[in-house]
Design a protein that fits this description.
The chain has three domains: 4-83, Winged helix-like DNA-binding domain superfamily/Winged helix DNA-binding domain (Arc Repressor Mutant, subunit A), CATH 1.10.10.10; 90-167 and 265-294, 3-Layer(aba) Sandwich (D-Maltodextrin-Binding Protein, domain 2); 169-263, Periplasmic binding protein-like II (D-Maltodextrin-Binding Protein, domain 2, 3-Layer(aba) Sandwich). The protein is 41% helix and 24% strand. The protein starts with a helix and ends in a 5-residue tail after the last helix. The chain is globular, with a radius of gyration of 22 Å. It has ten helices and ten strands. α1 (4-16) crosses α3, α2 (19-26) packs across α3 and α6 packs across α10. By secondary structure, it is of the alpha/beta class. Strands 4-3-5-10-6-9 form a six-stranded mixed beta sheet. It has a two-stranded antiparallel ribbon with strand order 1-2. A two-stranded parallel sheet has the order 7-8. β7, α8 and β8 (219-223) form a beta-alpha-beta unit.
Length: 299
């Protein structure tokens, strides 16, 4: 009989590429991961890993088993959802991940709704960049999370993770100079200093790609992740920036917002098979109610 915990390790190895990365993500030692994977090979009766020096890759049989592991793990999530649904409403801890602007704009109201409608639920919120969410969900560190992507930086398909759309925001150019709203508005910022998010985030990649599409690379002066701080820097004459609609509702004095043909899309992410878990359903309902009350929806 194949051990589900070992299957999870194999799935993570296929995703992360090295035993060290799997060990770090799941709080194991590398030797423990290696031992568990070797035990899985014995259980399977076929070679799942190919070792070349210090490198470990999956054999064709290993990749086949990973595909089955995805199905098994998703069905286990469904089983947990069915068992939880037999109780009197969602209860217990709900570990929520969210990026900072969503934490500020929407999470507090959603938590109030959850407290009113589901007092037995105990939400616990942690801020983290959307690029880290999929790993945290698969590792069991989170139950649900808010993630975002952009027209120019779509959310990549992630094994074992599903998403549902929540809301769409228009992006704006924040500057201290009036500009005409056109498809070529970014081209007028070729010689400007730019305020961008930190390297490695989707926000940073979005700004770089938007400027590249306009025919230039931005002159980066500051790297800041919090949009309220970004707008304060723009107001202080420190450069221009791209900001999403929800974060630009009340810009500082002197900041001019110019609408762009770019959108940011926020999604609810959870493990595959968990969409009908009562706690996930409750959180999704609370978030949708909050968004309807605070964000003008755009088609």
């Amino acid at each position: 009989m194949l051990d589900v915990r070992k299957l999870r390790l194999l799935r993570e190895l296929a995703r992360r590429g090295t035993i060290a990365a799997v060990a770090e993500a799941l709080a194991f030692t590398p030797s423990a991961v290696s031992q568990q994977l070797s035990a899985l090979e014995r259980e399977a009766g076929v070679a799942l890993l190919q070792r070349t020096g210090r490198r470990v890759t999956l054999t064709p049989a290993g990749h086949t088993l990973v595909g089955h592991a995805e199905v098994v793990l998703a069905r286990l999530e469904q089983a947990q959802a069915d068992l939880a649904d037999s109780e009197a409403g969602p209860t217990g801890a709900l570990r929520i991940g969210a990026f900072p602007s969503a934490t500020q704009a929407f999470i507090p109201a959603a938590l109030r709704t959850l407290a009113q409608d589901h007092p037995g639920l105990q939400p616990r919120v942690a801020e983290l960049d959307p690029a880290l969410v999929s790993d945290a969900l698969r590792a069991g560190e989170l139950d649900v999370a808010l993630v975002h992507d952009y027209d120019l930086v779509p959310f990549p398909p992630e094994a074992g993770v599903h998403t549902e759309p929540l809301y769409r925001e228009t992006m704006f150019l924040a500057s201290t100079t009036p500009r005409t709203t056109t498809d070529a508005v970014l081209a007028t910022c070729r010689d400007e200093q730019w305020i961008v998010a930190t390297t490695g985030t989707r926000c940073h990649t979005m700004t770089i790609r938007a400027c590249q599409a306009a025919g230039f690379l931005p002159h980066i002066r500051h790297q800041i992740d919090e949009f309220a701080t970004v707008l304060a820097f723009v107001a202080a004459g420190q450069g221009v920036a791209l900001v999403p609609e929800a974060s630009a509702a009340r810009p500082p004095a002197g900041v001019i917002l110019t609408e762009l043909p770019i959108a940011r899309h926020t999604r609810i992410a959870f493990r595959a098979g968990a969409d009908q878990h009562p706690a996930i359903v409750a959180f999704t309902a609370a978030m949708n109610a909050t968004v309807r009350a605070t964000v003008p929806m755009r088609s």
